[in-house]
Every structure is written in C-alpha cells, then in structure tokens.
Amino acid sequence: MALLVLCGLSWPASTATPAVPVTVWLAGDSTIAAKRPQKRPETGWGEAFESHVKTGAVIVDNRAMNGRSTRTFISEGRWQALIDATRPGDYVFIQFGHNDQSVEKKDRYTPPDDYRRNLERFVREVRAHKATPVLLTPVARRRFEQGRLQDSHGEYPGIVRDVATQHEVALIDLLARSEAILREHGEEGSKSLYLWLRPGESSNYPDGLQDNTHFSPQGAALMAEAVVEGLRELDLPLKDLLQP
C-alpha cells in the first residue's frame, strides 16, 4: 500500500532515553479524542497511539475534544492551557479540519484564511516554547460514490500542507494515508473501521448507527499506525522513543 509523506524534513536522531519523559500533546477533534463510556465503542486514534510509545520515556497528553475546530479550541481556552503546559523538548501534534470546514455549523466553522492563521499561530507558539510542532492533515471520512472514495475536506488539507512547507514544519499527511487504508478495505470492508453498528449491537446505540466520521477500535488502531508510520519517516528524534 503506497503511503505518502509530503514533508522531507529531518532532524538529528538520538537513541538515548530522556531522563525526563517527553510529552506528546495531541490537539484536535473527535477523530483523535478520548471517549466517554457512553460513546463507546467510538474510539479516537489518539487513544490507540499511546500503545506505540515507550513507557516511561513518553507521556501522551490527549487534549483533543469532540466538535472542536481551530477557532473553538482557541476561544474555549484549550489551546492556551495546552501551550502553557508545554515544555522544551515536547511535541505538539496538531490535527484539525473536520469542524473548521463545516460551513453549515456556525458554532465551529472557521473560514480558510482564519484556519491558516490559527495553524500558523499554533506553530509559532509551540516553537516559542522550544517544542516541536507536527502538523497533520485531517483524517479521511468514509464517503464512497459508485465505489470511489470522495473528498470531503475541500481546500483545508491543502492549507495544512502549505503551512508545513512555508514554515518548515514536520507534516504527516494523514488524509493521504487514511484514504489509502479506506481504498484498500473498499466500500464495504471499510465499514468495520468506522462506527457502523447494527440495532442491538451496542447498548449505547440501541437503534444502530451509520457513522462515517468516527472510528471503531479497529479503525482507530489503523489510523494510529498510520500516524506512527508517518512519524518514523519524518526522522524526528521522537521516533527512537516509539515501540519497535
């Protein structure tokens, strides 16, 4: 399966385990976030990502939250709380877009120019704290028409790529990677990766559910693996703190 990383940046690697654990902060939306019991089996890929880092060497602090865009993540004080806690040597993974581009949802919609400015602010402030920003394009929705996977994010992934290029930021093109996973599984097989539930299958969703945005545990695990693959290819020092 051909997977893409659209940023060829590299950093000096170190195999030494840090004396103080490195924190990986996750900033994003429901596709990453940890879920409440009443939402299970919905699972964010950030939950699955934790199993890929070395215990004692890395702390994963998942600040992602359902329904948030770059705009609301800032306006609710979530970004400020995250950045205030960030320390030199940490990493901040930033993945937004699902809610920013939802023009019909005025409580979260972020126009493209504002989205760009917010991403640039995130990058600037992470670097000011001597930490490393990592940008991720928004993960794919499961939308097929006549057997072909459809785009559902418009210009927003391109903005992430542009910001990464212009400001020399590490980029994991999770959209491209997740699209490859969906194409490999196909229109029918990819249902198992998302929150497709039959009536009576889950007590949280007694009438069943057909959700093409949020992940099943299996889907979250595959998306986390895609993030890890991208991280290894970026050659950041963090890759030496991943599980073999």
UniProtKB/TrEMBL annotation:
InterPro entries: RhgT-like (IPR037459), SGNH_hydro (IPR013830), SGNH_hydro_sf (IPR036514)
Keywords: Hydrolase, Signal
Protein's UniProt keywords contain Phosphoprotein: no
MF terms in GO: hydrolase activity, acting on ester bonds
Domain named SGNH hydrolase-type esterase: residues: 28-221
Alphabetized Pfam families for the sequence: Lipase_GDSL_2
Signal peptide: 1-15
Recorded family membership: Belongs to the 'GDSL' lipolytic enzyme family.
Protein name as catalogued: Lysophospholipase L1-like esterase
